[in-house]
Design a protein that fits this description.
The complex is a heterodimer. Chain A is built from 1 helix and 2 strands. Chain A is an alpha+beta fold. Chain A has one domain. The radius of gyration of chain B is 13 Å and the shape is elongated. In chain B, helix 1 runs parallel beside helix 5. By secondary structure, chain B is mainly α. Chain B has one domain. Chain B has 5 helices and 2 strands. In chain B, helix 1 links the parallel strand 1 and strand 2. Chain B starts with a strand and ends in a 5-residue tail after the last helix. Classes of the chains: A alpha+beta, B mainly alpha. The interface between A and B is medium-sized, with 28 and 30 residues. Strand 1 of chain A pairs parallel with strand 1 of chain B.
């Protein structure tokens, strides 16, 4: 599976990894982030 | 493709199923909607190896020490296998 060139939906969670952190990783791997969000279930 | 940042195996399985074969709890808008999207957790080895090491270290490494990365990866891999996605 290659991330480079893919469109990525970054679904983060407050108690886990934040959406912004996932997006930064995806972009560094050459992907385009089309949606980034961080859910909170408290 | 979908990258998850969920904190445990149960929530990872729930998210992964929701974006592949539809919401398993039948509670949300994606109940019965099979999107079939490729889904991975950001801490899975196959993702980690493609991220710039300094970026991973800055954003993910701390949480990787706290969370059960192995269990989470296994849960998402199982969902991929169930839905016919390779790797």
């Amino acid at each position: 599976m290659k991330i480079q060139g893919k469109k990525v939906i970054a679904l983060g969670e407050r108690d886990g990894v934040q959406g912004s952190a996932i997006a930064a990783c995806a972009q560094s791997a050459g992907a385009e982030v089309v949606l980034e969000t961080t859910y909170c279930f408290v | 493709m979908v990258l998850l940042g969920t904190p445990n195996a149960e929530s990872s399985r729930l998210y992964a199923m929701t974006v592949t074969e539809g919401d398993p709890s039948w509670a949300g808008a994606l109940a019965g909607v099979a999107l079939g999207l490729p889904v991975y957790h950001v801490m899975e080895e196959t993702v980690k190896t493609q991220v710039a090491p300094e970026v991973y270290e800055e954003h993910i490494a701390l949480m990787e020490m706290v969370l059960e990365a192995g269990d989470i990866a296994q849960a998402v891999q199982e969902v991929r296998a169930q839905t016919g996605q390779g790797d």
